[in-house]
Write a sequence for this structure.
């Protein structure tokens, strides 16, 4: 405990006053008592003893440093005095006559006199050699810590390493010196010399070297966990790669098997690509072209279009000439930095003293779920049937030729559920012509879910997606066991599944910043939401993320009930954390709006622009008023069956959702909204405008697809997790990662069975319009025993908030809420004002005390 001010004001003296009665004094046999009455009591809490020890330690450090350094220059001159043969330490007590009789005539040269000479000789020559200088370090660190209360290093660790270092250096120096000399020297000291002798007798010179190397490396491994790497790369089987957040799991990472396109060249070459066997390759079928293509000869002219690099050189020269101008413009910035440096220095000293703020400390032992909780479905290999591939390609080519569409090249990329055939049409073919043939191609391939992308954005080709006969399931485990996921350094990474080229697709929900999910019933929407939630649970600590779950269907999200005390946020009442009731949804959404406003106030106060900067500043203790601030976790609001909500609550829901969607991104509140019915009265213009990222599972009509994606395509999906992700500009076809209910249950159990917070995170209270309570009557008899203390606290902080009472007085939310109501009734705080704290109606404690007295009077009478 820090001790402030004059210690003589403390009770330590008063305590001793009682036994001072004359009688008592005579009876007490303890002889120490009278001394303690006159002398101040030294106890460790007092701090004085520690300061004295600290000062002594610092003096020792200086003393040792001077004596040792001097020894290096004066040891020869002082040898006769310090030598044990001539008396050593006994010489200290000899008179000068006795010294002369012992043959010691030379004066002592050590800068610290005879004591310095003896001490240095003892440590350096007789003990540890030059390694003894490390004692200076030990004393300095301890002294510095005790005197200035600044923690340079952890003392126990420093002691352990330094003492080892002394012994190790002494023996190692002795080992090296032993190669050239057979006598002890002050380099290694007698300890180093004799230890070497002993070891050499036991294990030989080489054995001693090996033991020393082993000991040195072991300590390096303990201290820094150094890696031993052989020159050539070995099999990659270590899961302990640098994963910032996830605890390393002993699970083998899987290689992502990305599809390499299979190509069929125009003039009947062989298919290229690693996915099909050479003997399976069939030459491109070109039924006699109806219209001979005169432009064929031009083809080679299109290929070697290479941009020449020469102009770049000129540009570089220009830039070099411009450089001085740029430097001039940038110059004023250091002035700003100087202003800041005061705060920075303060923050740095706080960090040095207490370390960075650790938001995970409350649940420091929290274990991230392991991959073993997930199942492995399917083989996770691209198992393509070469016959199917060829047959599809031939049918596509045939159909196109049938309509006089000549193609240049065709290639196939095989995904888990669909294969993408990319066509380069011959010059002069109109794209719209191919697009119009969508149904004909589907007919000729006799397949559902054919999607034509004409043209493929940024590729100059036309894509035809054809479902595979045997779709491959993408298990969540196979996605999370990839290096790409393990190394994903995103704020809110979500593993959505795999792309058409079998590549793992990871998106950052924080960047999206909100996600709209739609799809007809039974097409994989719930699985998709589970995949999003599960991926976040795999990457985030409970201190960093909270979910607000809304599930009008009452069955989909119940699996997450067990993680309430870890990952859920709810309104401060006793109800269920997973919200199923429409009225409560409206309150929760408004409460989230209040949370958003409060967060913006905090951001403003901390002069930062977003949650990441804010938390960064908070962790580095750069926020000047930490009492007012807190570490802000991300909040992800998930609403299943949004259509149902819109039907029952309409505008009441739409308004807060629109507000959150517009503003909440910077303060770390992100929305994931799912709906089965993607009609325009559910996904309204306002909502759509604020959800640039949309995920569409299969829908039943083109109109629905347009409602969700502003484009067709979702009606041509094949279901079972086949989906399209629109990120505003791009439309990406993905196969959703599959995670089954038992897996989600296992993960929830795993997290739920660990120590959690006392309750779910409480969102700010929200009182609906109809519910706003009428001014309460003050009732002195029923007021809380903590009422007066709470009143003083509120007036002292000039902040009428329930959470302040909760935090400072360690009360539950309900009791704190009751007290604040009583304070309002007693006229101490103003009425509830939404996101702002209530007004405090008394400016100081004096006026409050007078008011409290008047409140007490009627009951005293
Ligand atoms: N990614 C996937 N991979 C493989 N199969 C899937 C995938 N997603 C869903 N399925 C299959 O589709 C079935 C229905 O999925 P899901 O329950 O997610 O549909 P839904 O759209 O949520 O339906 P509802 O709207 O009625 O709840 C699942 O039981 C599963 O068999």
């Amino acid at each position: 405990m820090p001790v402030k001010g004059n210690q003589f004001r403390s009770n330590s003296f008063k305590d001793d006053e009682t036994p001072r009665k004359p009688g008592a004094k005579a009876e007490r046999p303890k002889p120490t008592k009278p001394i303690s009455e006159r002398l101040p009591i030294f106890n460790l809490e007092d701090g004085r003893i520690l300061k004295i020890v600290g000062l002594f330690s610092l003096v020792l450090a200086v003393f040792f440093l001077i004596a040792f350094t001097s020894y290096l220059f004066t040891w020869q001159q002082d040898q006769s005095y310090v030598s044990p043969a001539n008396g050593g330490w006994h010489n200290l007590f000899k008179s000068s006559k006795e010294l002369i009789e012992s043959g010691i005539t030379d004066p002592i040269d050590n800068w610290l006199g005879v004591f310095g000479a003896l001490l240095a000789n003892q440590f350096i020559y007789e003990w540890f050699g030059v390694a003894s200088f490390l004692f200076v370090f030990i004393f300095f660190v301890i002294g510095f810590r005790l005197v200035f209360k600044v923690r340079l290093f952890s003392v126990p660790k420093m002691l352990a390493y330094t003492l080892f270092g002394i012994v190790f250096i002494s023996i190692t120096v002795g080992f090296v010196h032993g190669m050239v000399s057979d006598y002890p020297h002050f380099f290694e000291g007698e300890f180093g010399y004799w230890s070497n002798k002993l070891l050499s007798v036991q294990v030989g010179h080489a054995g001693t070297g090996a033991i020393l190397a082993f000991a040195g490396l072991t300590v390096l491994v303990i201290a820094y966990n150094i890696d031993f790497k052989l020159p050539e790369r070995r099999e990659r089987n270590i899961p302990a790669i640098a994963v910032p957040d996830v605890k390393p799991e002993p699970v083998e990472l899987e290689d992502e098997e990305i599809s390499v396109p299979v190509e069929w060249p125009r003039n009947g070459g062989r298919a290229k690509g690693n996915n099909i066997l050479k003997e399976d390759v069939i030459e491109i079928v070109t039924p006699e072209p109806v219209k001979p293509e005169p432009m064929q000869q031009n083809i080679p002219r299109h290929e070697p279009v290479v941009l020449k690099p020469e102009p770049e050189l000129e540009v570089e020269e220009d830039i070099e000439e411009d450089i001085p101008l740029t430097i001039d413009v940038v110059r004023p910035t250091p002035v700003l930095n100087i202003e800041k440096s005061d705060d920075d220095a303060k923050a740095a000293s706080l960090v040095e003293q207490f370390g960075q703020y650790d938001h995970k400390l409350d649940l420091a032992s929290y274990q991230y779920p392991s991959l073993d909780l997930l199942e492995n479905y399917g083989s996770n290999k691209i198992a393509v049937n070469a016959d199917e591939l060829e047959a599809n390609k031939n049918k596509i080519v045939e159909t196109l030729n049938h309509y006089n569409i000549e193609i240049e090249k065709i290639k196939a990329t095989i995904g888990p559920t669909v294969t993408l055939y990319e066509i380069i049409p011959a010059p002069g073919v109109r794209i719209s012509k191919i697009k119009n043939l969508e149904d004909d191609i589907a007919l000729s391939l006799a397949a559902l879910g054919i999607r034509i992308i004409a043209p493929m954005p940024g590729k100059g080709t036309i894509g035809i997606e054809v479902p595979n006969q045997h779709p491959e399931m993408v298990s969540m485990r196979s996605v999370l066991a990839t290096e790409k996921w393990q190394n994903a350094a995103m704020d809110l990474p979500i593993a959505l599944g795999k792309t058409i080229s079998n590549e793992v697709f990871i998106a950052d929900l924080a960047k999206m910043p909100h996600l709209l999910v739609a799809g007809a019933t039974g097409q994989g929407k719930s699985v998709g939401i589970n995949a999003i939630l599960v991926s976040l649970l795999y990457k985030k600590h409970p201190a960093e993320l909270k979910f607000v779950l809304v599930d009008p269907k009452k069955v989909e999200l119940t699996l997450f009930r067990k993680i309430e005390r870890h990952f859920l946020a709810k309104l401060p009442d006793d109800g269920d954390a997973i919200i199923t009731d429409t009225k409560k949804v409206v309150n929760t959404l408004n409460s989230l709006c209040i949370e958003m406003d409060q967060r913006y106030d905090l951001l403003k106060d901390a002069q930062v622009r977003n949650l990441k900067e804010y938390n960064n500043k908070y962790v580095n203790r750069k926020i000047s008023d930490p009492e007012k601030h807190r570490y802000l976790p991300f909040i992800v609001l998930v609403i299943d069956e949004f259509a149902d909500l819109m039907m029952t609550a309409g505008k009441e829901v739409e308004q807060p959702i629109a507000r959150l969607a517009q503003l909440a991104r910077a303060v770390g509140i992100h929305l994931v909204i799912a709906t089965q019915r993607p009609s325009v009265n559910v996904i309204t213009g306002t909502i759509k405008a604020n959800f640039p990222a949309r995920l569409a599972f299969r829908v039943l009509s083109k109109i629905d697809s347009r409602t969700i994606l502003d484009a067709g395509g979702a009606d041509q999906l094949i279901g079972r997790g086949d989906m399209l992700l629109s990120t505003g500009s791009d439309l990406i076809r993905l196969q959703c990662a599959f995670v089954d209910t038992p897996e989600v249950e296992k993960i929830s159990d795993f997290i739920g069975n660990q120590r959690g917070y006392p309750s779910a995170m409480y969102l700010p209270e929200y009182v609906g319009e109809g519910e706003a309570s009428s001014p309460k009557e003050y009732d002195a008899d029923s007021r809380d025993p903590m009422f007066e203390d709470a009143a003083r606290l509120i007036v002292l902080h000039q902040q009428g908030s329930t959470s302040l009472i909760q935090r400072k007085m360690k009360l539950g939310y309900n009791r704190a809420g009751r007290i604040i109501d009583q304070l309002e009734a007693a006229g101490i705080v103003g009425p509830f004002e939404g996101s702002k704290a209530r007004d405090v109606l008394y400016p100081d404690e004096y006026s409050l005390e007078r008011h409290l007295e008047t409140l007490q009077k009627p009951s005293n009478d």
User: Anything to note?
Assistant: The domain at 262-295+382-467 is CATH 3.30.980.40 (Threonyl-tRNA Synthetase; Chain A, domain 2). Residues 473, 519, 521-527, 676, 720-721, 736, 738 surround adenosine-5'-triphosphate (CB under 6 Å). The two ends are 44 Å apart (CA to CA). The chain has five domains: 7-46, 48-224, 262-295+382-467, 476-752, 773-860.
